[in-house]
Amino acid sequence: MIISASMGAGHNGAAYELERRLKARGHEVRVVDFLPMLPLGFGSFLRWAYHFQLDRLPASYEASYTLFSRALGRYIRFPIAWCAQLLVGRALRKELEGLRPDAVVSTYWLSSLVLGRMRKQGTLRVPVASYLCDFAVHPLWVHPSVDLNLTVSPSSGFSADALRSRATRSSGPLVGERFHANDDRDVMRRELGIEPQERAVLVVAGSWGVGRVTETVEAIRRCGEEYHPITVCGGDERLRSSLVERGGKGTVFGWTDAMPQLMAASDATVENAGGLTAMEAFAAGLPVISFQPIPGHGKDNASCMSNAGVNRYALNDEELAAALRDATNPGPARDGMIAAGLALFAGDPADDALDLAERTPAHALLTPVRVRRGRRRTALAAASLCGLYFALTVGAQGVAALGVGVAKPPKGALNSVYLGVRVNAAELRDPSVVAAIEAMGATVVVDGRTASSAGSELQDLADAGVDLANGGWGRGRFLRWDRAQDDCDKSWKVIAAKSGERMHEFVPGRSFDAFDQLYCRTGEGKQRLVRPNVQFRPEAQTEPALEERKIYLLDGRKGDAAAVVTTLEEFAAAAASQNLDVRPLEDLR
C-alpha cells in the first residue's frame, strides 16, 4: 500500500513510479490519496491554501517555512500528528483494514506523521516507510516511530538522521524509466526549430508554474543569443499566454507529457523548486541550474543540492551566465554535473520497500481501537472545522455587510450616488444601452464568460472612457475557494484581455467571504470589493429611493434592452430631481 497526496506532482509522481516498479515485480500495490480522507473537504482546502500562499503570498510562505523548519519543527510535529489523526484516523483505519497490507509507504509528510503516531501507539502493526521527495528534509517530515525513511541523496539521509530517524536509506530519486534513456534529441530539436549551434535551455517551474518564470526567461535571453529557452508552464495557462504574447526567442509549452523528449533536446535545465523535474533531469543526464527559487522549500532545496554538488545555484544574472556556459558546453564542468546527478541513482526505493514488507509477520494487521473518547475528539475536530469554515464564509459575509474590507465613497463626496449596470452579451452589443450608460457616467459590470464571447465591444467602451468592472466569472463553483479564484482572478484577466484595461473593482452580485478578500486583495490583480447598498432590476415595480453616498447596482441581464434604457433614464431623472450626481464605481475608495 502506498499513501500519496494530491498536493503536488512530486508526491504523486513518486507514488505512481513506486507502484509501477512493484507491480512489474509481480506484487499487488494500491495507491491511496491522503487528502480526500480529511472530512468536510478540508483536504481540498489545504491544497488550495498551499497553492494560494505560494502564488500570492510568497513572503508569508517563506516566513512560515523558516519558522517551522528552524525553530518549531521538532516540537510541533507531534501535536500536528495528533490533530491529523483525529481528522483522518477512522478513514485511514478503514483503508488499512480493507487492504491488509504487508507494509505501507508514504510519500506525503502529513500521512507519514499520522502513520508514525499509529506505529507508536501500537494500533498499526505493519511497518511504515516514508519516502522523502526533496533534498531538503523538513523536521515535519520525520517521525521517529516510522520504521524507515528513504531519501533521494546521502546528504538528505544525514539530515533525516539528525531529526531522530529510526532508520534511513539513501535509495535515490523515484523517476520513470522514460527519462533514463532517450534518443529523441535530434528529432525533437528539428521539431522545435533549434539550430545545431544553439544551446537549448529547458525552463521549468513545476506543475503549477509558480515563481518568477518570466524574469528567468528574460535573464537567460540576456546571457546571449546562442541560448534558446524552452519554457514549460505546467497548468498555468495565464503564464503560457503571457509568455507567448511577449514574444522573443524561444519556445513555450503549457501542460505537456513530452518532458523526456524536451529534456533529450535540451543542453541544460533551469529550475526553481528542486522537486520532481530536477530529479528527472538528473536521470536524463541533463545539468541542473537553480535560479530564482521559490520561497521556502525551493530555496532550501537549491542550497542542499548545491552543497551535495549536483546543481549550480546561480544567485544573480552574472552567475547564471557562468553556469549556463559551464552546463551547455562540452567539458569537465558539464561532465561533472551530469555524473553527480546520475550517481544519485545508486539504489532502488522499491527494493527497500520489499525488504520492509518481507519482515512483516503474516498475522500483522491494524488493531482496531474504538473508544468513546476518540469519537468525542473526532466530533470536536469536525466541529472546529465547521467553525473555521463558518468564519471564513458566513462570518466574513457578515463583516463585509458592516462595511469592513469593501469599497466606500470618499469622505468628502456629498450629493453623489454610485451606479453600476450589469449587462449580458446582447445588451453589451445594443447601442441604445451603451449610449445610456455612457451618458450617465455609470460603470459597466460584466462577467468573464460574457467578456470571453464578446467582440470589440469592451475595447470600444474602454476607448470611450467608460468605466468597466469585474462582475465575476458568471458561473458558480461548489468549493468557495475555487469560486473565489474564478470570480476574482480568472475573470478580470479575460475582461482585461478583451478591453485592454485593468479591472479595479469586483462586483459579483453576491455576498463576499474571506476567500474573495484573499484573492482580490493580493497578487497582481488587486481589486476593490464593491458591495452595493441597493440592487434592482428593470422590471421592478418602483424605482429605488435615492440617498447620497449610496451604491446602486442595476442588474439588466434578464430584462430586454428597452427596459434597461428606460430604467436608466428614470434613475437619471430621479437623481437630477434630488440634485445628486451619478458617478462610476471607480470613484469609490
Can you offer a commentary on this structure?
With 589 residues, the protein is α/β, with parallel strands linked by helices. It has three domains: 2-174, no CATH class; 179-345, Glycogen Phosphorylase B (Rossmann fold, 3-Layer(aba) Sandwich), CATH 3.40.50; 401-587, Glycoside hydrolase/deacetylase (TIM Barrel). It is globular and about 85 Å long. The strands form four sheets. It has a six-stranded parallel beta sheet with strand order 2-1-3-4-5-6, with helices on both faces. A six-stranded parallel beta sheet has the order 9-8-7-10-11-12, with helices on both faces. The chain is built from 22 helices and 20 strands. It is 48% helix and 13% strand. The longest helix is centred in the N-terminal third of the chain and has 42 residues, at 58-99.
Describe this protein with a few key phrases.
589 residues; alpha/beta; Rossmann fold; TIM Barrel; 3 domains; 6-stranded parallel β-sheet; 22 helices; 20 strands; 48% helix; globular
List the helices and strands and how they pair.
Blueprint: E1 2-4, H1 9-24, E2 31-33, H2 42-56, H3 58-99, E3 104-106, H4 109-121, E4 128-131, E5 148-151, H5 154-162, E6 168-170, H6 185-192, E7 199-204, H7 213-222, E8 227-232, H8 237-246, E9 251-253, H9 259-265, E10 268-271, H10 276-283, E11 288-291, H11 297-308, E12 312-314, H12 317-328, H13 332-342, H14 349-358, H15 372-401, E13 416-422, H16 425-429, H17 431-440, E14 443-446, H18 448-452, H19 457-463, E15 467-470, H20 480-499, E16 505-506, H21 514-520, E17 528-529, E18 534-536, E19 551-555, H22 561-577, E20 581-583
Parallel strand pairs: 1-2, 1-3, 3-4, 4-5, 5-6, 7-8, 7-10, 8-9, 10-11, 11-12, 13-14, 13-19, 13-20, 14-15, 16-17, 18-19
